[in-house]
Amino acid sequence: MEKEAIHDEHTRFTVLLYRKSRGLRLGEVGVFLAGLLGMLPFFELRSAPFVIALLLWAAVVMAGLPALYRALLRPRYTLYPDRLVMRMKGKREEVPLSQVKPSYTLPYLYQIRGKETALLVSDPFLESLSAQLKLNQSGIKSNGKE
Q1: Which distant-in-sequence residues (6+ apart) come within 8 Å of 76 by Cβ?
Q2: Distance between terminal CA atoms of the chain?
Q3: Has residue 144 been placed in a domain?
Q4: 68 pLDDT higher than 80
Q5: For residues 65-87, average pLDDT
Q6: Is the sign of the CA dihedral 144, 7, 86, 62 positive or negative?
Q7: Is position 61 within any domain?
């Protein structure tokens, strides 16, 4: 029988503005640098139009890439009493909670199967995950029984 989900969440755009995976962060830097190099022949360095264009390009990249990431990959996370299910681009990955450990560098980074993984979820989801990990570590099931 399928256990009931504790927390189910599609990654929101606002979460992607401040929580980013390594790939998304590198993509933003790469696209920004490509735009910067593309602007150099058209503007005089340190001129007001160059600075304004650069700031506008930064805003487009910072808002556009997370929106594109969300639209293409459609990240979704579901927390069950005994496992975490992550879906990206239609692919489903199930991870037992015994293989999930906090990373302690950032609140949304977790060691999953020994690899540092960014969970692009809200604070309430992270709180539910942390509580469930503590319950599982102490041997108590989510319904209060051992």
Answers
A1: 8, 9, 10, 11, 86, 87, 88
A2: 19
A3: no
A4: yes
A5: 94
A6: negative
A7: yes
When pLDDT is cut at 50, 70 and 90, the band that residue 1 belongs to is very low
Which amino acid type is present at position 137? Answer: Q
| Interatomic CA distance for residues 51 and 24, integer angstroms | 24
Per the domain annotation, does 145 fall within a domain?
Answer: no
Helix (H) or strand (E) holding 62: helix 48-73
Q: Give the DSSP per-residue string, 34-57.
A: HHHHHHTTTS-TT-HHHHHHHHHH
User: Are 97 and 106 in contact, with CB atoms under 8 Å apart?
Assistant: no
Tally of structural domains, the chain: 1
Helix (H) or strand (E) holding 101, with range, is: strand 100-102
- The range of the structural domain enclosing residue 89 comes to 1-139
**Distant-in-sequence, close-in-space partners of 7: CB < 8 Å, separation ≥ 6:** 77, 78, 79, 124, 125, 128, 129
The pTM assigned to this predicted structure is 0.84
125 in any annotated domain = yes
Considering the chain, what percentage of its residues have pLDDT values greater than 70? 94
On the question of pLDDT at 146 being above 60, the answer is no
